[in-house]
Write a structure and sequence with these properties.
Length: 381
């Protein structure tokens, strides 16, 4: 292994005697060699496309390192949630929620909010490298009491030391899309272009939930709006949704890995354009405010039959699915599910049997609601 490639393990507290988990971390290049990027996959342990993408990426990074073409620092966590990956019921991985307390593994990450407020009140302004040192000092002072809390702390500690943070996810069935801050639209579009992602959802500063990328982004945003840093030195983060759970194959993974490398070329982290990536063709990228996204719920219990595919444009009132009643007195009875806005069907969330109130779809729209329901979360559960 090259001298500039470092592989290390981070041990997590044992969940029970004789049972332990650990994170694997690869680092390429040098921390003081230029811009840095952090990538992780599998924070939801049942989302696997990103796991394969990062395996392809690691092969490319090793080759580039041997050629001396990595000029910044690249950190890769190939599986970010060994706890969730180990939660199995027979052959099914139940990796989205912590079975110990029902909490989404991508919620309630520790942040630096109170610490940053204290620094701002004290009038402290510094360089991004000095702020990274401050983040490390603050986060090192936290004392998590559970394995899941330790996992989240270790992940955010690593992420906060980088200039760019990408969290790879997927959904049940969806067109590729990404989430990023509304104030970093240009960076999000560069990433979407490199990965040929057609839909970008721009989050407000108060998206809530303390998701991984939100905690990273909001920390830097707080410094920026208080003039403690400049916009040019602010860190960038995004959650990248790599299509659906079933989209695990070498062709797609190789293309996505090549897209990530091409993004790193644009950012000056590596200097060699990837091969084997997506064919060069223009992808129409649409940006939408997350506050305008519509979550469509199932009205009745039954079998969901979708009438629209991910990526299809839909109109307000148009049927996007039907729910087939299984216990109706009327043979063949179906209930139509309609879009409540004009936009693009991004996610189909419930194949097969659904219960009343279960989310069926997410539609991205540019039409802002007249009023925002403060009780409706912007991020899915």
């Amino acid at each position: 292994m090259s001298r500039s490639i470092n592989k290390r393990k981070i041990s997590l507290p044992a969940l029970s005697p004789g049972c332990s988990h650990e994170l694997t971390v690869y680092s390429f290049g040098a921390a003081n060699g230029g811009k840095s990027i952090y990538l992780q996959a599998g924070l939801h342990g049942d989302e696997h496309p990103g796991l394969l993408v990062l395996q392809h990426l690691l092969v490319h990074l090793k080759e580039l390192d041997e050629l001396g073409k990595i000029h910044g620092q690249v950190t890769v966590v190939p599986y970010a949630n060994p706890l969730g990956m180990s939660q199995r019921l027979f052959d099914s991985v139940l990796g989205r929620f912590d079975l110990a307390n029902g909490e989404n593994f991508n919620r309630n990450f520790p942040d630096c909010g109170r610490y940053i407020s204290q620094q701002i009140e004290a009038g402290i302004k510094s360089s991004s490298s000095k702020w990274k040192q401050s983040f490390a000092t603050h986060l090192a002072s936290l004392k998590p009491t559970t394995a899941a809390a330790t996992l989240k702390l270790e992940l955010i500690k690593m992420a906060m030391q980088h200039d760019i943070v990408l969290d790879l996810h997927c959904d049940v069935d969806c067109v590729s899309h990404l989430y990023a801050s509304h104030s970093q639209r240009d960076q999000a579009l560069r990433l979407a272009t490199a990965l040929h992602i057609p839909v970008v959802l721009l989050e407000p500063d108060d998206a809530g939930g303390q998701a991984f990328d939100n905690v990273y982004c909001s920390t830097w945003r707080e410094l920026e709006i208080n003039d403690a840093i400049t916009s040019a030195t602010r860190g960038f983060s995004a959650t990248v949704e790599l299509r659906g759970k079933a989209d695990v194959n070498d062709r797609m993974a190789q293309a996505d890995a090549a897209g990530l490398l091409n993004f790193m070329v644009q950012e000056g982290i590596v200097d060699d354009r990837a091969t084997g990536g997506p064919e060069d063709h223009a992808v129409l990228i649409q940006t939408y405010p997350l506050v305008a996204a519509s979550h469509i719920s199932c009205p009745v219990a039954g079998i969901v039959v979708y009438k629209k595919n991910p990526g299809d444009r839909v109109n307000d009132g148009e049927v996007i699915a039907e729910v087939v009643h299984l216990d109706s007195d009327i043979i063949g009875e179906r209930t139509s599910v309609r879009s409540d806005t004009d936009g693009v069907l991004v996610i189909r969330q419930t194949p097969g049997l659904a219960r009343p109130g279960q989310r069926l779809a997410l539609i991205a729209s540019s039409i802002l609601p007249a009023t925002r329901d403060e009780n409706r979360p912007l991020l899915d559960a």
